[in-house]
Amino acid sequence: MDRSSKITRTTSETEISVELVLHTVRESNINSGVPFFDHMLTSMAKHGRFYLHLLCQGDNEIDDHHSVEDIGISIGQAFKNAFSEKKGIYRFGDAVIPMDDSLTLVAVDLSGRPYYHYKGAKLKGYIGRYSEELTGEFLHAFAVNAGINLHVRVFSGQNRHHIHESIFKALGIALYKASVIDSLLADSVLSTKGTI
Q1: Are 150 and 108 in contact (CB under 8 A)?
Q2: Which residues of the chain have pLDDT under 70?
Q3: Which pTM value belongs to this model?
């Protein structure tokens, strides 16, 4: 089963190329043009056991918003393609990740029905030049374009870096768990409808 995908996306604001390979410990190569976001995506890929080659050329002289949102769209589409027909996958995945003072839960359902919900610390400040609200923009764009149900709950945290990193690590792990092949399912999908 092919567990990989390539996506290119070109707009007047960004030019993005994505290569994704699921279930590998190959080291990712990420250049979003937004250094803190690179760190978050690298953590997500490492703990999610997927390879991500990402290159984005965006209008960062204006703002990082376009780059981060469009990367969410592109990576979401790459995951949707890599999930393919979803035969044999666990479908559901979750992770509760402590990172020093922060504690975050992420739960996903590879349902084909996009939904995103966040509850927790308000993401309204800055980490260096990185606007915290961009994490929400990425998560929403990713969930919609991957066609997944995504819930994020931050229970505690004071350090803003730790809060964001716990979110991305938990998302990676939850996606890994949901996309693992269950040998009991053989060539079927985990749905009473017979399709996901």
Answers
A1: yes
A2: 1-2, 184, 186, 188-196
A3: 0.94
Give the number of C-alpha atoms closer than 13 A to the C-alpha of residue 98, restricted to the C-beta side.
2
Per DSSP, the chain holds a count of helices (H) and strands (E) of 4, 10
Using DSSP, state whether 180 is helix, strand or coil: coil
Decide: 153 and 120 in contact? Cβ < 8 Å.
Answer: yes
Domain ranges of the chain: 4-185
Orientation angle between helical segments 160-179 and 35-48, nearest 10 degrees: 40
CATH number of 4-185: 3.30.230.40
| Element housing 103 (H / E) | strand 102-109
The b/e string for 152-189 (b: 16+ C-beta within 10 A; e otherwise) is bbbeebeebbbbbbbbbbbbbbbbbbbbeeeeeeeeeb
- Greatest Cα pair distance, the chain, in angstroms, is 51
